[in-house]
Amino acid sequence: MEIRRSLFALIKLLLFFSVQTESKKTLARPGVKNIVLVEGVRTPFLLSGTTYADLMPHDLARAALQGLLNRTGIPKDSVDYLIYGTVIQEVKTSNVAREAALGAGFSDKIPAHTVTMACISSNQAMTSAVGMIAAGQCDAIVAGGVEFMSDVPIRHSRKMRKTMLSLNKAKSVGQRLGLLASIRLAHLAPELPAVAEFSTAETMGHSADRLAAAFGVTRQEQDEFALRSHTLAKKAQDQGLLEDVISFKVPGRDIVSKDNGIRPSSMEQMSKLKPAFVKPHGTVTAANSSFLTDGASAVLIMSEEKALSMGFKPKAYLRDFVYVSQDPKDQLLLGPTYATPKVLERAGLSLSDIDVFEFHEAFAGQIMANLKAMDSDWFAQTYMGRKAKVGTPPLDKFNLWGGSLSLGHPFGATGCRLVTTVAHRLKKEGGQYGMVAACAAGGQGHAMVIEAYPQ
């Protein structure tokens, strides 16, 4: 049996090199382990406050993990490690990776940890997995992400928290009564979470509006791009292209089998919406922004050798990746602009070599601003220390199955969706190289090059 597996692996490798010589060069490097995406799944992404409203984050993560197990058939004891990304953590399950893994039936002997890096949290989960496999620590890792915006933690005010902690330590009735008497009505005001930068106290919507204004992105351009996203997503959904979506029986409710935020509209209807953040003259609205979303994703990442020895047909190679960061005030959402040329240089590719682009759509204005920045020699020379612009991804290769504006954006889960979509599009469209890029809170960003696995 072991000899057969080895021969199978050798045949696959020979096929790989014979196919690559007929097309573009491969990004495989001598002495560097090939790491592959075997499979990727996600729960349907739903508007927060809808069908998932009564669940908890680990419920969604568990569903994604079970969906991955069902689709791959991999024995649970063949996974060496689990990593999950999330942003707004549920206090009761702070290491949601571990709780979801146990709930999905993985052995309690398999370690798991949770990472957070804003909207690129599951990107970080995946690249952490790549690093561990490259280092020889593991052969098979499940990475993923989850976000649950239907039930975010709401805290008491700091003064109230201090009083309650003191009450817990009080040793006499007199001390307790004294502390209770110190409570004022203002102490009862809750602290509500906000999608805002801690360093600037500015909401991401305000930042997107200012960024759009700085690059001269009009309201019409933003609405047109948002309409494009919803239209393409609806087409992909109707044609069955979103094959990473698994059906999920929500306890006490119906089976959910598709995203529910895809809503193609019209320019006329969208133009009627008022600015959501900068009033009255802003250009960012509810229609050209991503919406609060519940959802989870999961991917199986393995060394190519291990995947082939177990009889898997990988979907893609995970190649070069970079992380970037810049000014969180004026360049909060420009991660793709900074990350794209760096990852292309690492891979030895040019923008024209990329067949499939999947960029995270936080706001239509953010996408359009990045495209304009990438096409500006002035911006490259003034802010990036580069001699020339990297160029703009052609729209006929860009987010052709919709994006976060239409499919939804569970903060911690989107990265895995992007990577899996690239793999599926490369196979469907016959391309060889794909690129993922995303911005994130804190002025950070990520980009990765993915290479198609030989058919």
From TrEMBL:
Report the transmembrane regions from the record. Answer: none
Q: Where's the Thiolase C-terminal domain?
A: 313-451
* Main localisation: endoplasmic reticulum
The positions flagged as active site in the entry are C119, H409, C439
Look up the EC number in the record and give it: 2.3.1.155, 2.3.1.16
Q: Which SUPFAM superfamilies match?
A: Thiolase-like
Asked if the record carries the keyword Lipid metabolism, the reply is: yes
Location(s), subcellular: Endoplasmic reticulum; Mitochondrion inner membrane; Mitochondrion outer membrane
A Gene Ontology molecular function term for this protein is:
acetyl-CoA C-myristoyltransferase activity
Per the record, what are the reactions this protein catalyses?
A: an acyl-CoA + acetyl-CoA = a 3-oxoacyl-CoA + CoA; octanoyl-CoA + acetyl-CoA = 3-oxodecanoyl-CoA + CoA; butanoyl-CoA + acetyl-CoA = 3-oxohexanoyl-CoA + CoA; hexanoyl-CoA + acetyl-CoA = 3-oxooctanoyl-CoA + CoA
Pathway given for this chain reads: Lipid metabolism; fatty acid beta-oxidation
Residue ranges of the Thiolase N-terminal domain? Answer: 35-305
One of its GO biological process terms is:
fatty acid beta-oxidation
Determine if Ligase is one of this entry's keywords: no
Instruction: Please name the NCBIfam families in this protein's record.
Output: AcCoA-C-Actrans
Q: Return the similarity comment.
A: Belongs to the thiolase-like superfamily. Thiolase family.
Q: Which PANTHER family match?
A: ACETYL-COA C-ACYLTRANSFERASE, TRIFUNCTIONAL ENZYME SUBUNIT BETA, MITOCHONDRIAL
Describe, as the record does, how this protein assembles with itself and its partners: Heterotetramer of 2 alpha/HADHA and 2 beta/HADHB subunits; forms the mitochondrial trifunctional enzyme. Also purified as higher order heterooligomers including a 4 alpha/HADHA and 4 beta/HADHB heterooligomer which physiological significance remains unclear. The mitochondrial trifunctional enzyme interacts with MTLN. Interacts with RSAD2/viperin.
For this entry, the protein name equals Trifunctional enzyme subunit beta, mitochondrial
Organismal lineage: Eukaryota, Metazoa, Chordata, Craniata, Vertebrata
